[in-house]
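2024-03-11 09:14:02 DEBUG pipeline.ingest accepted 1 chain
2024-03-11 09:14:02 DEBUG pipeline.ingest length=495
2024-03-11 09:14:03 DEBUG pipeline.predict start
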Amino acid sequence: MQNAVIYARYSSHKQKEISIEDQLRICREYAEKNSMNIVQEYTDAAISGRNADKRPAFMQMLSDSKDHLFEYVLVYNEDRFARNEYDAVNCEEILKQNGAELVSVTQPLPDGPERIILKALRRGMNEYYSAELAIKCVRGMENNASKGKCTGGRPCFGFGVTPDKFYEVNPEEAVIVRKIFQLYTEYNMTATGVLEECIKNGWKYSDGKDFNKDSIRRMLSNRRYIGDFSWNGVEHFDENLRIVDDKTFEAAAKKLLINRKTGARVRATEDYLLGGKVFCGECGEKFVGDSGKSTKHTNYYYACKGRKQKKNGCKKKNIPKKLLEDAVLKFLIEGFLTDETIDAISRMAADLANKEAEEKSMLQMYEKELAEAERKMKRATDYILTHDDSECVHDTLVESEARVKELRVLIEKERDSYKPVFAENIAEWLKSYRKGDLEDLNYCKNLIEMLVNKIVIYDAESESNASKVLIYLNTDPTGYYEVTPSDIKNGCSPL
């Protein structure tokens, strides 16, 4: 029997979402049905799924996966795991590296290559829903901001909130805020020096937490301390809420800017978008990231690992990183994601998702058990009507009636939780990828991860030709498309 854990979450008491108790129950039933041993349950109550690092139980689950104590993470559905596409991909990769697989018990996936596309589609739709919900919330918050009312969350240090949701100055904390600004500007202390003074004087947040260098810097750049409570483009100034004068605030801002510019520079690492997906057609080894310095700048390449390590006699030349990545992205956006292809993928993905959901849903099991319980109840009733009532038969009737009521509730909840996948929604989401920003690293990574299975590169057949690049996609890993890095230069359509 394999070990599994359950992760459950809901966003807010005000939203109509399936409760944590129901999520846990359905996941437990799935585990029992599939012979899994539940070793731990993690829950985050009233916390959004948009940011993984703000969910303590979720982060604990990721940390615990390093100990390899479980092989599966069960969630009610994938939007309970994450509603941010970037978090979903990266956190699932962490689980995978630690030997654990994410399983959505109400959204099963097929085992073939289309699994990757369906998973990417669901992530995109979850993020779309989350963004749409956020827009509605923002409207209400903008209305509060225009009136100078609290827009949600804990007020920053130095302020409180009245019962009718208006901000007010906290006198005791305001004294500390002014002292921190004074230490940083008049006494010319560093953020570290200011922090040491905070520790020395025992200054803490109202919840007992200590200050740190980052919180000190955020405080020194927070315009609310000069009465500016503008929010999301809605301007609102209130002189009665001022804690620091403009001259002191501007001096702190100027010093922060100077320190940022003269601070230690962190060496940037280059992102290879096709990492792990590129193979040498000559020797079969993977291509790895490589670089070389010229007189003016650093050049980045994809290099055959076989040739680089000189272990198989391969002579495959390096491929310029940007040239290859641009050619592949151009092919995906202009050559592959046509209206015709999107229509075919959308219909295929919707049909597969709905078919798998129907086949593996708990609904069928509940309905089958309900039919049996109703037959049992009818037999007991018929027996009582035609024979003397017996205690045993009477108990059977009572138990069957109770189970029928319970199963009908479960079936209703299962039907409510089922979210059919519509081809039109998938098509609309896929088309949005044709308008993405190629400067957006996450957009490019998601597009490649969703569609590209592998890329095989062969040397040119003659000096006049460019290298041959075969792109195998997740839609059909047995077939391939041919593209050359020169396509992006010449504006040609890939074959």
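2024-03-11 09:14:41 DEBUG pipeline.report The radius of gyration is 30 Å.
2024-03-11 09:14:41 DEBUG pipeline.predict end
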